[in-house]
Amino acid sequence: MKKFKFTIHGNEYMVDVQGMEDNVARLEVNGTAYEVEIHRPARQTKTPTIVRTPEKDPVRPSIEKREGGSSHHILAPLPGNIQEIKVNKGDIVEKGKLLLVMEAMKMENRVLADRAGVVESIRVKPGDAVLQGDILVEIV
Predict the structure, then answer these.
(1) Which range of residues forms the domain containing residue 26?
(2) Is 8 a member of any domain?
């Protein structure tokens, strides 16, 4: 966001340019929002605009209840690589216990148990690449 200070006929205006798309600029002048049309040919960019829906909490793993039982799947919060597994099959875990460490977006992410239970199966091993939503651990 770029900020400018204009003086027009002796009056001062603080202008924040919040963004531009095609020939329309979004401005805030002294706290009031405006959309203004710019009278010049629009620049054609070769780079596509990517529109993403915001995640509610992308770092926390989610749980998926499996039909026909009380097992829960701990899912990968985002794409990445598994670095360390901190539990074994049959381990009793409490809610909040560290299950595994994965690298995603060049950062270490700790995947925690969302509920207490027993580790029924571990579906990944160190070095595995996972996608968001892949099953990592199953807790009963």
Answers:
(1) 2-37
(2) yes
54: which 2 tokens?
A: 């915001």
**pLDDT reported for residue 20:** 82
Q: Is 119 exposed, middle or buried (0-12, 13-18, 19+ CB in 10 A)?
A: buried
107-112: strand order across its sheet: 107-112, 98-104, 80-85, 129-130
pLDDT higher than threshold 70 for residue 27: yes
**Within a domain: residue 11?**
yes
Q: 133 and 67 in one domain?
A: yes
Q: Does 67 lie in the same domain as 33?
A: no
Q: What is the pLDDT of residue 89?
A: 93
What CA–CA distance (Å, rounded) separates 130 from 119? Answer: 19
